[in-house]
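Running low. Invent one:
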Amino acid sequence: MTSGTVRIDIENHVAILTVSRPEKRNALDLDMLKALIDAADEVEANGQVRSAILTGDGRGFCAGGDVKAWGGMRPDEFGHTWVRYGHRVFERLATLRMPLIAAINGDALGGGLELAGIADIRIADEQIRVGLPETGLGMVPGWSGTQRLVKRFGSQVVRRMALGGEIFTAQEARSLGIVDIVTSTGTALAVAREYAHRVAARGPAAVEIVKLMIAAASGEDNGAAVEALGSILAAKTGDLKEGVSAFSEKRPAQFKGEW
């Protein structure tokens, strides 16, 4: 599937999502945000997909939010249409049922780093740089740079990027826990494919459950993760089957406490 700005390729049990606006270094606008959430829905609905990769077209990963897309918005429009919708999109990707691997093939700055930050695993080409330069524009990180990234990378690392404007190389980012693997230039996607297929070979139900358990333990999306785990467990019980049958047949349920 392709929307023109996000391309989906399926390889066995692995989905590759490619943000594709290379002439703008894959900077995000509202059309791309919508395409990303549509892509997440499509991948989630594909029962054959067990792991996913997020990468950028051409030589860039994602230059963050396109200033031309939001620069002329009214403050209320900026807060609701741009920031809150972007949060919704990023949260959708972060909570995919399958592990998501970011193949960072170019600089990930501002919204680009926030996009990479939603992934479970980050694999970066050695030439890339990461940072949160928003305060240099009189702006603040708006797509979980001060929230999810603090939980995942630590508050001091985010302070150095967001307050001090520090830009880190790939090797520095690995030493700080921002990226997990650094590869030679031009190979991040190939290494991500190998990693994704390794994930896809493991028990898909166990992998999905572990992802939810880690999200709950790390304080990310606690309520949704716990309720998802509980719902999965309840859905496998004999009591649920009896309850649904009783409802359909308009009779009192005869629960037996069967697991």
In short: The first helix runs from residue 30 to 45. The mean pLDDT is 90. Residues 204-249 form one domain.
